[in-house]
Design goal:
single chain, mainly alpha, two-stranded antiparallel ribbon, 28 helices, 60% helix, DNA-binding
DNA sequence: GTGCTCTTAAACAACC
DNA sequence: AGGTTGTTTAAGAGCA
């Protein structure tokens, strides 16, 4: 009989500890790999074809629209532009995001550069195609798995880049009085994109080189410099006029793009910067974002400039405000835009992943994120993979039975291993080993432990002591201890026979727990001296810990590390933690104080821990007295409302609620 | 390999 | 009688 159970325990334990963890981690990796590869393959191929069709259709529509609105009228006159502009801007362009050059600006630029209507149409079609592409991409992305996001974004980025490149080429060709491409052709560049979904920096650079390539000469040769100068003047004047929001068409929004300022402005500011730099003996060119390591960092340029002055000359001569620079800025803008989109999406994905790993995706509540992931080690039989019959009623996971350890046994690297005080086998002696006060340890994770069916990384003794310490009068009946367990930890709402037996066993076993006859009956108290003695024995038994704990301040150092870990975790985690960094700090600080109190007073001081005041206010609801019944898990409402802060409340309002519970 | 700690399981007794 | 409380023993696992 015992043998059987023992072996079962072993097998389950090893299963949960090793097998599951390795399995899950490998699965995670494999899954991510698979997802990536499949995403890169399928999404790029499918979306490209669809996009091409869409782009062509939309481009045709835009062309018709334009032709209808202004049949064959030249756009060379700026005045007529202004009049026509609202009409010339189809929805497609108007849909462009604010980060993109406004249609008016675009048109003005292009028209000043003597673009033909066909070219303008092509340009608009390009823009429209880009927008549709974005929309299409976004829709697809929503449907695809999250792991495809990166590749789609990269694909989109590449497509846009190439479209811009194509657009530039068209522009250049248009300057060479070549007709604009047929609308259908506008989308063609995208066809070649899926091949290069990688978009490495080198590729980007190459793209830039392509964009900035041979067209420069032709442009200059075709007298674009005139328009440059015009644009420059316009631009500088528009700098002042840009303050006027009513002005519909500042020549271009270059001032706000990339590092982009108008050359005139650039020049002026750079001179100022140069003066500052000279005075500060700074390394030449160290501060200009476009100049570094003696090289012009204009995208695709890499012109070697020996000093800053040369760089300025180069900047003003080669990267003046011409159509090329404009287009480059536009491309850069879109690159940035896409990167921002991608960043936001990746961030969302990260948060979703974090949320999933912490609380499981089925967690509907926006309860504060847990800090710690706890993996059960020895609680073999209680592993939630064996879903108990009453589990669906547990408040933790209404939809999905809780399988935290099975699903995600160890995710330390994801969340920053430093913060994980409770991983795997660490669970057992964590709190004792590091003398981390339980309150400060649990406090940030109250919601987590309360709702997640995760075994807390504390020994029974530690938990019992904490339960007693949390009580108003530092003493609890056995039933009250039970209640504290079930109240504080979702994990202990199941398999009551097992852990209750363990609680009783620990109460009897450890000398630090003293049974006191009371009017109410027998209550349990903590002999803090014994507790510390026992703990110090354990600490002295560990050389590393002794080394780290030369004095009672060692507790502080240990706590400090833990605090740092917690803070690091907080910074790693989303901002939805119950304890924001300050509160977490506060909590840990309190824990530190509490720990030191313990040491200084040797248990005779005020061993009660400070309540975690940082917890979100949760209304306490009365709990059934027999809540510790095996078949009576806490109801969802009860548990959701019933927070461990009850103990805090008890401190604030002495015993007004605790007695209701027990 | 050993000792320690912790967990789990179980038997048993006393009490309500 | 049945459940709770409390004690004790035993065995396995993890860790140093």
């Amino acid at each position: 009989m015992m043998q059987e159970s023992a072996t079962e325990t072993i097998s389950n334990s090893s299963m949960s500890q090793n097998g599951m963890s390795t399995l899950s981690s490998s699965q995670l990796e494999a899954g991510s790999r698979d997802g990536r590869s499949s995403a890169g393959d399928t999404s790029s191929e499918v979306s490209t074809v669809e996009l091409l069709h869409l782009q062509q259709q939309q481009a045709l529509q835009a062309a018709r629209q334009l032709l209808l609105q202004q049949p064959g009228s030249g756009l060379k006159s700026p005045k007529s532009q202004d009049k026509q502009r609202p009409l010339q801007v189809p929805v497609s362009v108007a849909m462009m995001s604010p980060q993109v050059i406004t249609p008016q600006q675009m048109q003005q630029i292009l028209q000043q550069q003597v673009l033909s209507p066909q070219q303008l149409q092509a340009l608009l079609q390009q823009q429209q195609a880009v927008m549709l592409q974005q929309q299409q991409q976004q829709q697809q992305q929503q449907q695809l798995a999250a792991q495809q996001l990166v590749f789609q974004q990269q694909l989109l980025q590449m497509q846009q880049l190439q479209q811009q490149q194509h657009l530039l080429n068209m522009q250049r060709q248009g300057l060479l009085s070549l007709p604009g491409p047929a609308p259908g052709q506008a989308a063609l560049p995208g066809q070649t994109l899926p091949q290069s979904a990688g978009l490495s920096p080198a590729e980007l650079q190459q793209l830039w080189k392509d964009v900035t390539g041979g067209g420069a000469h032709s442009m200059e040769d075709n007298g674009i410099k005139h328009s440059n100068s015009d644009l420059s003047t316009n631009n500088s004047s528009s700098t002042t006029s840009s303050s006027n929001p009513a002005k519909a068409s500042p020549p271009i929004s270059h001032h706000s793009i990339a590092n982009g300022q108008s050359p005139a402005l650039n020049h002026r500011r750079e001179r100022e910067r140069e003066r500052e730099r000279d005075s500060l003996h700074e390394e030449s060119g160290g501060t200009h974002p476009l100049y570094g390591h003696g090289v012009c960092k204009w995208p695709g340029c890499e012109n070697i400039c020996e000093d800053y002055g040369q760089f300025l000359k180069h900047l003003n001569s080669e990267h003046a405000l011409d159509d090329r620079s404009t287009a480059q800025c536009r491309v850069q803008m879109q690159v940035v835009q896409q990167l921002e989109i991608q960043l936001s999406k990746e961030r969302e994905r990260l948060q979703a992943m974090m949320a999933h790993l912490h609380m499981r995706p089925s967690e509907p509540k926006s309860s504060p994120k847990p800090l710690n992931l706890v993996s059960s080690v020895t609680m073999s039989k209680n592993l939630p993979s064996i879903s108990p019959p009453n589990l669906p009623q547990t408040p933790t996971t209404p939809t999905a039975p809780i399988t935290p350890m099975a699903a995600m046994p160890q995710v330390p690297s994801v969340l920053g291993g430093a913060n994980v005080p409770s991983m795997g086998a660490m669970r057992r002696r964590h709190s004792d080993k590091y003398s981390m006060p339980l309150s400060s340890e649990i406090a940030p994770n109250y919601e987590f432990y309360k709702n997640a069916d995760v075994r807390p990384p504390f020994t029974y003794a530690t938990l019992i002591r904490q339960a007693i310490m949390d009580s108003a009068d530092m003493q609890l009946t056995l039933n009250e201890i039970y209640s504290w367990f079930t109240r504080t930890f979702a994990y202990f709402r199941r398999n009551a026979a097992t852990w209750k037996n363990a609680v009783r066993h620990n109460l009897s076993l450890h000398k630090c727990f003293v049974r006191v006859e009371n009017v109410k009956g027998a209550v349990w108290t903590v002999d803090e001296m014994e507790y510390q003695k026992r703990r110090s024995q354990k600490i002295t038994g560990s050389p590393s810990l002794v080394k780290n704990l030369p004095s009672s301040l060692g507790y502080g150092s240990a706590l400090n590390a833990s605090l740092q870990a917690a803070l690091a975790e907080t910074s790693l985690c989303h901002g939805r933690l119950s304890g924001s960094p300050p509160t977490l700090l506060h909590s840990a600080h309190e824990g530190l104080n509490g720990s030191l109190d313990h040491l200084d007073t040797n248990g005779h001081g005020s061993p009660r821990y400070s309540p975690p005041v940082h917890m979100p206010p949760i209304h306490v609801k009365e709990e059934p007295l027999n809540m510790d019944d095996d078949d009576c898990p806490m109801s969802l409402v009860t548990t959701a409302n019933h927070s461990p802060e009850l103990d805090d409340d008890r401190e604030l309002e002495e015993g007004n609620l605790s007695e209701d519970l027990e």
